[in-house]
């Protein structure tokens, strides 16, 4: 048999890994930025430069083109990046840590903030969830978020949600070079315009649901179910919270950020603000309409309950007559009138039927039955 020389215990111990060291090494494993990157492209004078680039290589290429006198910028799109991925992008593009934290955590209100020469715009996205009727729907509006970092030579978009894709918008912009030739802030305008247009589309679709609920509520022969109204009210409130704050954010472009945008882009942003104001006003009117509809539905439910109580009272009154007579003759006393009379029992039944018939006719004439 072959002989093996025993190794020293110290050498054996040096090759062993403790569990806590394995845990530390596992924490150092990070998912690369490419896993969260949807698209990364360089645009020169509005035209997309062929080739695939990482975020760092793309920005370096842009700087080379600028040295050569060409106007270029990079647009990188990220989908739900983690903290490490976002931090790696922030180090290359010089993004502020507070804005980076907001981009990772999401759940932000629509806003616009300036960090030196970089603008940070937060947009809430909405999508209409198709359904057969409001009564059968569990959700009508689904929300997401798009964060836009805009600098002198870059655009970084961070999306949260499955319906927030910008691939179609990117293809549309690439087919028309004129807008991309205006620079990174033109991309920001296009994204804001795209999101605001969805507000208008969703509000128009929700108007059909509100009209259906309103017709059902004021229908004289229908039983009002107030739960769908409350559900629709909740969805409108969620939509209003996503849309309304953006009005203030867009208005700041014409007051606080004039030095960053050209006059042409400022005109475009004012047009987006007009569309945003229209959508916000429409959604606010829906909120007020549903509040009035809730009050009307509660009043109708109260009337239905009052009608039901009158019917119950009328039937109880008719049932009380034979109950009273039967109760009296069920006491089994000897000296009671008509106990020994041959026609006493038929006469008692006839009397109960006559009184009940009179009460029924009276209640019907008074619309209690």
What would you say about this model in short?
The chain crosses the membrane at residues 312-331, 343-363. The chain is an alpha+beta fold and 369 residues long.
Described by the principal axes of the CA atoms, the overall outline is: rod-shaped
Mean pLDDT: 83
- The number of distinct β-strands equals 7
Kindly report the spatial arrangement of strands forming the biggest sheet.
2-1-3-7-6-5-4
Percentage of residues in DSSP E strands = 5-15%
| CATH topology group of the largest domain | Beta Polymerase, domain 2
Please, how many domains?
2
Helix content: 55-70%
- Based on secondary structure, the structural category is alpha+beta
Element-by-element helix/strand order: HHEEHEHHEEEEHHHHHHH
CATH architecture of the largest domain: 2-Layer Sandwich
So how many helices? 12
CATH class of the largest domain: Alpha Beta
Ranges where pLDDT stays below 50 over 5 or more residues in a row are 1-27
What Rg, in angstroms, do the CA atoms define? 37 Å
CATH superfamily of the largest domain: CorA soluble domain-like
User: How would you sum up the major sheet?
Assistant: 7 strands, mixed
The separation of the N and C termini measures 107 Å
